[in-house]
């Protein structure tokens, strides 16, 4: 099989490429240049796709003896991921840029180009499993990335390979060390790659400017603070609200209204929701018969919760949650998993949260 190994410069993609070589595939490595100013995109474990990362990826490719190229997708990444991220926050929603990058860059732009060039599949270092064409969680629950892959279609999954899904991260690093890869101890990237200083609010303010408005308490209707822009908040947020409430009870962001510039906060009792509505879903396999019982993961690092899934008249989904959840933000992905306790790692699909 002729495969393209997406090599970020990290340990996961390095080992994924090595395993593809070990499997006897004809492997070519490619590093994605996703920023017009790559010198600024890494600070320790923050950021990615820097010149440093490209050099790390090239060194691994050289050690594996495989061809290596750099593809400049900076313009596409800016339009499909960065600009989308800013627009979503401006609209009062909370996007997941990693999910969007997988959907529009790695498994659309890259996979489409790879197939056009005659490759059979794209190999990545994602911690997830593919069995009989179906997406499942990684065996390493702490590193599982199936949530950000839940948006992929059956056609995209057919062209994907995830060699790391059956092993732990510790094993991945051990393989890298055994092979003498310099990236064996390289820190994992975290946070948002195009905001290397981790200051999301500052990044959005530089893009969107200041737009002051009130912070209103839901119980009393009283203004309990002010803000410099609704883009600095996300539903479920507790810290950094800049408010003063007499009863000293913690407040959470309940809703964001960009038009009126109003951020509404409330107590924990008001922050819980037991019904979630989504946009029309993307299924990873054949669309299931609705209604159905499933488990849903509502944020990248949240625990799944049991739910009943029904179809909405507009083509979306209605998720009736078994237990009320806080921090369910419009714009996030509601990823559905099969509820079977033995095979409950099967990803059914996802819908973007509307309300």
TrEMBL record:
**What name has this protein been given in UniProt?**
tRNA-specific 2-thiouridylase MnmA
Q: Where is this site: Interaction with tRNA?
A: 126, 332
Q: Please tell me the species this chain comes from.
A: Geodermatophilus nigrescens
Q: Extract the Pfam families matched here.
A: tRNA_Me_trans, tRNA_Me_trans_C, tRNA_Me_trans_M
Question: Domain tRNA-specific 2-thiouridylase MnmA-like central: where?
Answer: 202-266
EC numbers, comma separated: 2.8.1.13
Reactions catalysed, semicolon-separated, are:
S-sulfanyl-L-cysteinyl-[protein] + uridine(34) in tRNA + AH2 + ATP = 2-thiouridine(34) in tRNA + L-cysteinyl-[protein] + A + AMP + diphosphate + H(+)
Top-level division of the source organism's lineage = Bacteria
């Amino acid at each position: 099989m002729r495969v393209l190994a997406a090599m970020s410069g990290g340990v996961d993609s390095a080992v994924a490429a090595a395993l593809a070589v070990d499997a006897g595939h004809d492997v070519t490595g490619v590093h994605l240049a996703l920023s017009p100013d790559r010198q600024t995109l890494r600070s320790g474990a923050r950021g990615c796709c820097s010149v440093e990362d490209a050099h790390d990826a090239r060194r691994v490719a050289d050690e594996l003896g495989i061809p290596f190229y750099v593809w400049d997708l900076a313009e596409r990444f800016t339009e499909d991921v960065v600009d989308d991220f800013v627009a979503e926050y401006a609209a009062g929603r909370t996007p997941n840029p990693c999910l969007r990058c997988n959907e529009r860059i790695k498994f659309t732009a890259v996979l489409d180009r790879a197939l056009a060039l005659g490759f059979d599949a794209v190999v990545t270092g994602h911690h997830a499993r593919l069995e009989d064409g179906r997406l499942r969680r990684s065996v390493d629950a702490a590193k599982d990335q199936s949530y950000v892959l839940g948006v992929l279609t059956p056609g995209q999954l057919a062209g994907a390979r995830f060699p790391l899904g059956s092993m732990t991260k510790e094993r991945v690093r051990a393989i890298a060390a055994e092979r003498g890869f310099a990236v064996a101890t390289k820190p994992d990237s975290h946070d948002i790659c195009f905001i290397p200083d981790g200051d999301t609010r500052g990044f959005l303010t530089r893009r969107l400017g200041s737009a002051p408005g009130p912070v209103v308490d839901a119980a009393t209707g009283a203004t309990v603070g002010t803000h410099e822009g609704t883009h600095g908040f996300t539903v479920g947020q507790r810290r950094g609200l800049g408010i003063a409430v007499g009863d000293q009870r913690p407040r959470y962001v309940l809703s964001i209204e960009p038009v009126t510039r109003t951020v509404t906060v409330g107590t924990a009792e008001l922050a819980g929701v037991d019904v979630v509505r989504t946009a029309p879903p993307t299924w990873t396999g054949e669309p299931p018969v609705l209604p159905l019982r499933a488990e849903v993961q509502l944020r990248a690092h949240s625990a799944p919760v049991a739910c009943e899934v029904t179809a909405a008249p507009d083509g979306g989904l209605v998720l009736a949650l078994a237990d009320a959840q806080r921090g369910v933000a419009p714009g996030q992905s509601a990823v559905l998993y099969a509820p079977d306790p033995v095979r409950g790692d099967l990803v059914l699909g996802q819908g973007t949260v509307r309300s």
